[in-house]
């Protein structure tokens, strides 16, 4: 084990005293860190300087203004707006005494060494002896910032580098110094892992740490290659986006979003590294000019790109027909803006047909660099990055795995540099580099001479990574409780599988139903696998004591497979559509009535049918970042897999609790109660307006999750925590629910809901087709045109859903909506 890992793993990873925190510096980064600490349940003090020439309450105006801005931030900084109440705004003159109550203090002021040092000297008298103090510096030497402080202060001092925006970017680089207390470092990292949802990467106290070191090198290498090959800014963004597993923004759009001044600051930190590094990331003259002109990107209104309306475009003499909202692109040779173009690279278009990144990379890099412009750019770019990352070992991190994790979670790369290298073949690519007389990292040479053919090896016991210092493979270090479906596959194998879903043994008597169709769209493969696996009396409910539905993709599920549905509609195969809806309803019924507990663990986008799967599970274990909703009305349909039915059942339960009236004992009175009317109205709005949560916490407010559903902040812990929940329920004597008979509101509420729809149409908020769709939703929620208090079964409600779904499928406007969404990914209001 390396010195760094030994230091941070030497201590117990618990920090029970973290209740209050302080963030010093209310800029964009500092305020968003404060917001995310509040998301984790901490009380937070946010302090900044006192503005000049202010008195009274305005003395804390910078911090209070930052909190107000957080409530309007996009993407949202808080899981839910109420979390803002946990943040107290103050200033660095009047409110330092508040630091005495804080367990964790984070310095996040300007990236100026002198300013940071003065700040630490100022706060020192107010900091408790047991408080942890960390810096969010993006690249200054952590030890140097606290160099003037006492040994006791330095013992509780280290780096915690968040990435912006802190709520969404998973990476937290933890940078201990030689004097940092191992217990404090490990315990703080554990808190950030479990409560803040961070992927922890331990970095050495070197310039720019890990992610910025590799990421900015990659960005500026792309700039240099662009200039050498005469490509445009749009060309480079097309070549360095999702096609190679990097964010779809590409290099220059990302730089505009981050801020070109930030990019320049990180680049200049390389001056503290070796001469080769400093030369490699030297800012080109045109970027220096942009900095002088304050063309800093999105925050300045212009950078590598500039958005403009038709009028301003015409004044510039440029076209306003750019399909990217009249975006202009910078011509870096003339420093003038022109209409942005859409580059076309034949090999890139061909590579996009490959779903797997590994296959895309092989296709892209196999091209002739003398004939294929894409290959001519990407081959030297990527091999240069891979070699540089290898050369950085072990200066910046313990292992290749740490660098890969940092790039995946800090820069949103689908694969880290070493994983990309493995994907295209290390030995073959090294042979190609040698044959062309291109440089090759000494670390890669070590790998090859030691007999290795890849940086990673997957074994039944786990993943191994090559350590050049030891000339051997060693286990990839992961915190306990982190797991993926892939890791369970390697360890336990696959019980059964089809193209859309696999059943995997998770251990402890629990099986995982892993969704893995394209975008996890729910088609026949998933429906049949889930139904057969969970059906009572089947083989698998005898073999396992619980089940988890989840996966490794970026999203839980985008919903039902609309392409399959549209094809059946266009062919007029109504029996097939009816069969598919019945099958979907059968799947959700199998989930709900399975004799073993089924825990759904949703994450990312969980839309339509994905939400219906979750609604029927015995329990949900959601990831904190959850975009959940019954969105079927957006394509002119209603939730037809039992989703509307389940929302009605939840409305009945909520109204019964609020009114104290028993639905079974007094069905007529209950069906006419104000509490039921209010509960139905709320669920009606959720479905009819296709509301989607912006977090798991917000999904609770939409009644898509319950208070009993525990939220997991760290995506990597989701499967283990879902498995634990399944085990807990099984050991607690879980019994499946019985099908229900419930009273419906019928004509007592249906006219009211219809009136609301009519008024929305009169105000021109919705279209005629929206009226038709919303009316069907209202009809199902009210149980049809029955007398209030009529008792109906769950199957009756499912039949209403199916009838409405089939009816709407026959509507031309619904078919247009489905086709438009499949083509654009957006809803059509027709």
Automatic annotation (TrEMBL):
Q: Where is the signal peptide?
A: none
Residues in 3-hydroxyacyl-CoA dehydrogenase C-terminal domain copies: 209-306, 382-438
Q: Drop me one GO molecular function for this one.
A: NAD+ binding
What top-level branch of life does the organism fall under? Bacteria
Per UniProt, residues of the 3-hydroxyacyl-CoA dehydrogenase NAD binding domain are 21-205
Q: Which residues form the Enoyl-CoA hydratase/isomerase domain?
A: 510-670
Q: Which UniProt keywords apply?
A: NAD, Oxidoreductase
The catalytic activity, as recorded, is: a (3S)-3-hydroxyacyl-CoA + NAD(+) = a 3-oxoacyl-CoA + NADH + H(+)
* Protein name stated in the entry: 3-hydroxyacyl-CoA dehydrogenase/enoyl-CoA hydratase family protein
């Amino acid at each position: 084990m390396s010195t760094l890992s030994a230091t941070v793993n030497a201590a117990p990873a618990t920090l029970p005293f973290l209740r209050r925190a302080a963030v010093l510096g209310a800029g964009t980064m500092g305020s968003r860190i404060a917001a995310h600490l509040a998301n984790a349940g901490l009380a937070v003090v946010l302090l900044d300087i006192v503005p000049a020439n202010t008195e009274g309450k305005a003395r804390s105006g910078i911090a209070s203004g930052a909190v107000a801005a957080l409530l309007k931030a996009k993407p949202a900084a808080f899981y839910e707006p109420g979390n803002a109440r946990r943040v107290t705004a103050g200033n660095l003159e009047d409110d330092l005494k508040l630091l005495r109550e804080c367990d964790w203090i984070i310095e996040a002021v300007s990236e100026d060494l002198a300013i940071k040092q003065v700040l630490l000297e100022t706060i020192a008298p107010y900091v408790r002896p047991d408080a942890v103090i960390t810096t969010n510096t993006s690249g200054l030497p952590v030890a140097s910032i606290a160099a003037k402080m006492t040994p006791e202060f330095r013992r509780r001092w280290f780096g915690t580098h968040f990435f912006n925006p802190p709520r969404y970017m998973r990476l937290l680089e933890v940078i201990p110094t030689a004097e940092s207390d191992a217990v404090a470092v490990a315990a703080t990292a554990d808190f950030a892992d479990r409560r803040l949802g961070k992927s922890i990467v331990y970095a050495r106290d070197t310039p720019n740490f890990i992610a910025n070191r590799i990421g900015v090198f990659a960005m500026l290498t792309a700039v240099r290659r662009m200039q050498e090959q005469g490509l445009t800014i749009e060309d480079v963004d097309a070549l360095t986006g999702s096609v190679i597993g990097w964010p779809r923004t590409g290099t220059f759009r990302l730089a505009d979003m981050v801020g070109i001044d930030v990019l320049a600051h990180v680049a200049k930190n390389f001056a503290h590294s070796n001469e080769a590094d400093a030369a490699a990331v030297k800012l080109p003259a045109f970027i220096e000019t942009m900095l002088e002109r304050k063309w800093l990107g999105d925050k300045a209104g212009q950078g590598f790109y500039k958005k403009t309306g038709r009028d301003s475009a015409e004044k510039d003499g440029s076209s306003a027909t750019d399909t990217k909202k009249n975006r202009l692109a910078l011509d870096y040779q003339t420093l003038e803006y022109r209409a942005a173009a859409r580059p076309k690279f034949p090999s890139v278009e061909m590579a996009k047909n490959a779903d797997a990144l590994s296959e895309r990379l092989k296709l892209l890099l196999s091209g002739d660099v003398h004939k294929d412009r894409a290959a001519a750019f990407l081959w030297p770019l990527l091999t240069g990055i891979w070699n540089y990352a290898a050369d950085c070992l072990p200066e910046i991190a313990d292992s290749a795995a740490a660098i890969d994790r940092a790039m995946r979670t800090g820069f949103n790369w689908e694969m880290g540099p070493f994983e990309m290298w493995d994907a295209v073949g290390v030995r073959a690519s090294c042979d190609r580099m040698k044959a062309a007389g291109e440089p090759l990292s000494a670390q890669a040479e070590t790998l090859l001479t030691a007999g290795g053919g890849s940086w990673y090896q997957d074994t039944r016991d786990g993943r191994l990574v090559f350590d050049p210092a030891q000339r051997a493979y060693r286990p990839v270090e992961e915190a306990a409780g982190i797991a993926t479906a892939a890791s369970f596959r390697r360890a336990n194998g696959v019980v059964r599988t089809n193209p859309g879903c696999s059943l995997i043994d998770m251990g402890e008597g629990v099986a995982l139903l892993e969704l893995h169709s394209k975008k996890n769209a729910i088609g026949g493969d998933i429906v049949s696998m889930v139904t057969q696996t969970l059906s009572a009396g089947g083989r698998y409910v005898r073999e396992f004591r619980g089940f988890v539905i989840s996966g490794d993709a970026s999203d839980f599920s985008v919903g039902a497979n609309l392409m399959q549905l549209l094809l059946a509609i266009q062919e007029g195969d109504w029996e097939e559509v009816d069969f598919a809806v019945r099958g979907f309803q059968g799947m959700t019924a199998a989930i709900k009535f399975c004799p073993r507990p089924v825990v759904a663990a949703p994450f990312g986008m969980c839309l339509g049918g994905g939400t219906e799967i979750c609604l029927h599970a015995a329990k949900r274990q959601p990831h904190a970042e959850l975009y959940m909703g019954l969105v079927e009305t957006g394509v002119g349909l209603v939730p037809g897999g039992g989703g509307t039915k389940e929302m009605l059942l939840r409305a009945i339960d909520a109204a019964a609790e609020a009114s104290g009236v028993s639905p079974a004992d007094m069905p007529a009175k209950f069906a006419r109660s104000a509490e039921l009317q209010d509960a139905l109205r709320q669920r009606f709005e959720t479905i009819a307006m296709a509301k989607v949560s912006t977090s798991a916490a917000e999904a609770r407010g939409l009644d898509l999750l319950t208070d009993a559903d525990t939220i997991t902040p760290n995506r990597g812990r989701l499967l283990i925590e879902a498995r634990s929940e399944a085990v807990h329920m099984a050991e607690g004597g879980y019994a499946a629910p019985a099908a229900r008979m419930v009273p419906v509101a019928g004509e007592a509420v249906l006219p009211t809901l219809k009136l609301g729809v009519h008024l929305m149409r009169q105000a021109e908020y919705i279209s005629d087709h929206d009226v038709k769709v919303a009316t069907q939703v209202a009809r199902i929620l009210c149980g049809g045109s029955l007398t209030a208090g009529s008792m109906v079964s769950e199957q009756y409600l499912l039949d209403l859903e199916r009838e409405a779904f089939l009816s709407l499928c026959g509507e031309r406007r619904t078919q247009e909506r489905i086709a438009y969404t499949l083509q654009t990914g957006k809803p059509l209001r027709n």
